[in-house]
Amino acid sequence: MTPILIAEQVLNGLQSGVMLFLMAAGLTLIFGVMGLINLAHGSLYMVGAFAAAATAAVTGSFLLALVAALAAAAAAGALVERLVIRRLYDRDHLDQVLATFALILIFSEGTRWIFGSFPLYLDIPEALSGPVTLPGGIQYPLYRLFIIGMGLVVAALLFWLIARTRLGIRIRAGENDREMIAALGVDIARLYTLVFALGAALAGLAGALVGAIQSVQVGMGEPVLILAFVVIVIGGIGSIEGALVGAILVGLTDTLGGIFLPQIFGLFMDPAAATQTGAALASMAIYVLMAAVLVWKPTGLFGAKS
Amino acid sequence: MSRERLLGAVVLLALGLVPLAAHLMGEPFTITLATRAAILALAAVGLNIALGLGGLVSLGHATFFGIGGYAMGILASHVQNYEPMFEWPFLFEGSTSMPFIWLVAVLASALVALLIGLLALRTSGVYFIMITLAFGQMFYFFSISWSAYGGEDGLSIYVRNGFPGLNTLDPIQFFGLSYAVLCIVLLGAHLLARSPFGLALGAARQSPDRVQAVGLDPKRLRLVGFVISGAITGLAGALFADLNRFVSPTMFSWQTSGEIMVFIILGGVGRLFGPVVGAAVFVMLEHWLGDMSEFWHIWLGLLLLAVVLFARGGLVGLIAGREKAHD
């Protein structure tokens, strides 16, 4: 186990962490402002990836593909909010879970209907392909570095949006007291549609960026959705800082656990058994992390005190 | 007899009579469908104790369904391969006896429900939903990576396990067995809801503070309710594995959790016969819509959306009125 290998794996963990953050940020915003648990967030991730793959196939431009992913996911989000989600704000969580579960079925089967069951592929653009050499002699794929950079830039933009702009002030006010800001003349219905579309766009962007590394297929959103839930539970629901810290923690734990647990077990077990035990335990590592955080702080690291 | 009770009796009777008629007409596939409906209904009756009575929105009940399934798969596979499960402190070769498998399934799922409940019930609301979902996913990935018992491919058991005095390979006899278990558990759920414990659990859903004020511990009530709920769903998992003679990680998947919950919502939350109606309707839809269109999940999704948005109280609520609706 060399330092170079460790550095590579840390970067991989960071990369999956920032992508998880894009998912988790939207989920936590939507929950914080509207009090809605949205299982269909993974479907918006999938919509983004499919829109990007389809656009890239037609135009050949990766930039246009990203724009298409953002636009398609935001539009799908706004549409769904107007038609369905809007009726769920006053319902209990059970109704929200079921209605958004129904949306997953509709989105997934609808996508399968349009694009078929075979996965699509989104190529990494020429300018971003190939490895680069980092200080210390680490060879690392440029595209993954690009993803980390994009994730961090979007995170910074999001923090700026929430903390410094008028829209951010309204969003934060909406989290605290929605009757009051409605009374002050803010159009709450429009604000909600906007927040939902913003969360959807973030998910769609993540889907498109990850879609170039993995295959673009129906059902790709749900594993990420569940990881994003783990992130939010660790970070504290409604907290964007919590989502960032939680996402990086989960990304690192998941990646490093998968690589190093089998090796650690290999120190005192025979190789086959070590691989077996290590892999099985690594798949559980993030849930153990979640359980540990819950025992320590039931409302998450950055959660409001209940 | 209220309309709801009457409707429930009619549905339960129909679920019992249709396979009998199919048996006489020599249509074993219909019997298998009815068996599937009865077993899925059993799983949903389990979840309904947590969800309807206790107000605990668990999106992780596939965990218990899968544990029941793997209890059957693991015990039977050792017998099938002539590899003893363990030799110390005594020789244990596995088992192909349903009563023993059921006992193991119920105990194992109850134990896991206790552990998950201890952690998840520290929280409530959305946290609870997400945490139960996450723990379900943990078991899913564990079952995929645990190659000793089939990993991703699952485990096939070639001969259905036995029950004393029955030929379980005969579809109608296996249906009768599953149906009997469903009826007994339904009766149990009915008695449970009326027992002092059931009333206290219902009260803890409606007003935890008042329950606490009269000296009961809402957390402990919920934990016991969650354990009972998980154990019943585990029993259903063992039966489901025996129906298919196959277990795979799919039983642990979050879609399975979602579907078990869908049965309850289609039927009606917190109603005794809601899960039976919901599971029966689901299996019929799956069969008919599945025949008509490859993309039947779209129609299922739209139906579910319509029920959630417009028919609160589910199908039972639509037909029997809302007089005893879930609050």
Automatic annotation (TrEMBL), chain A:
Q: Does the keyword Cell membrane apply?
A: yes
User: What does the entry list under GO cellular component?
Assistant: plasma membrane
Keywords for the protein's UniProt record, in alphabetical order: Amino-acid transport, Cell membrane, Membrane, Transmembrane, Transmembrane helix, Transport
| Annotated compartments | Cell membrane
Its membrane topology:
Multi-pass membrane protein
GO MF annotations in UniProt: transmembrane transporter activity
PANTHER family hit by this protein: ABC TRANSPORTER ATP-BINDING PROTEIN (PTHR11795:SF442), BRANCHED-CHAIN AMINO ACID TRANSPORT SYSTEM PERMEASE PROTEIN LIVH (PTHR11795)
Q: Which organism is it from?
A: Alloyangia mangrovi
Q: Does the keyword Transport apply?
A: yes
Q: What is this protein called?
A: Branched-chain amino acid ABC transporter permease
Give TM segment ranges: 18-37, 43-76, 97-122, 142-163, 191-213, 225-252, 273-296
Q: Can you supply a Gene Ontology BP term from the record?
A: amino acid transport
Similarity annotation:
Belongs to the binding-protein-dependent transport system permease family. LivHM subfamily.
From TrEMBL, chain B:
Q: Where in the cell is it found?
A: Cell membrane
TM helices/strands, residue ranges: 37-57, 64-80, 100-121, 128-149, 172-193, 221-240, 260-285, 297-320
Tell me which InterPro entries the record gives. Answer: ABC_transp_permease, LivM-like
Predominant localisation class: membrane
* Any one GO molecular-function label of the UniProt entry: branched-chain amino acid transmembrane transporter activity
State the source organism's domain of life.
Bacteria
Q: How does it sit in the membrane?
A: Multi-pass membrane protein
Q: According to its record, what are the GO cellular component terms?
A: plasma membrane
Q: Which Pfam families match?
A: BPD_transp_2 (PF02653)
Task: Write out the entry's keywords from A to Z.
Answer: Cell membrane, Membrane, Transmembrane, Transmembrane helix
Q: What is this protein called?
A: Amino acid/amide ABC transporter membrane protein 2, HAAT family (TC 3.A.1.4.-)
Report the source organism: Alloyangia pacifica
